[in-house]
Amino acid sequence: MRAMAANDTCWESELAKLSQSAESRGIQLLTLSIEKEAVERLKGVVVQSGKLFNCSTFDLLCAHVWKISEITIGISEPNTKICLQFPVNCRNRLQPPLGSDFTGNAFVLASVSSTAKQLTEEPLEETIGKIQGAKEVLNNDYIKEYVKALENSSDKFLPSMRELTIVSDWLKFPFGALDFGWRNNEMILCGAALVGTPVPEACFLMPDLDQDRPGDFL
């Protein structure tokens, strides 16, 4: 993330470049807001289905974004293999866990695969269950093999492709706690923060800092 003063036009040129890249492939970059009440209501519905013991806000929104993005893109072949990836914090999954004094990034990408037809037709709770299952397998051995694979690979990033969706969880990022010496920091960050993405198929989930919509999500 890069936060800039409200009168700084640098972010506009960066966003324009990203938009042009996406639009050339028929993808439009959008920022959408969803009400907290709607999220809580959907979480209750999927848990009441009896197929899930619990459901976090991330699990629900991640599954929803993946399904909606597939419906929107509309991959023509129903049996086309598609993939969802999302970063998972691995600090406490390592053995021994990383200490509280560790300040760097420590995450691996969890993956869920499906066919286009299966994803669009299955109930939301089934998609959520797959996301939860992908997180459960991220143990110490998985993380070590993941790191080893990265070290032995010449290409550290996946190419942009229509079959891939990446969802990043920023829901607990303390935007309101950041202090750049400005007034109304939350409003400035909400309007002036530009989140760069390596591929157009990426989605960032974060709290909506608009004071008119407290508790909502973007």
From TrEMBL:
One of its GO terms (molecular function) is acyltransferase activity, transferring groups other than amino-acyl groups. It comes from Cannabis sativa (Hemp). It comes from the Eukaryota. InterPro entries: CAT-like_dom_sf (IPR023213), Plant_Fungal_Acyltransferase (IPR050317). Belongs to the plant acyltransferase family. PANTHER family: BRASSINOSTEROID-RELATED ACYLTRANSFERASE 1-LIKE (PTHR31642:SF186), TRICHOTHECENE 3-O-ACETYLTRANSFERASE (PTHR31642). This is Uncharacterized protein.
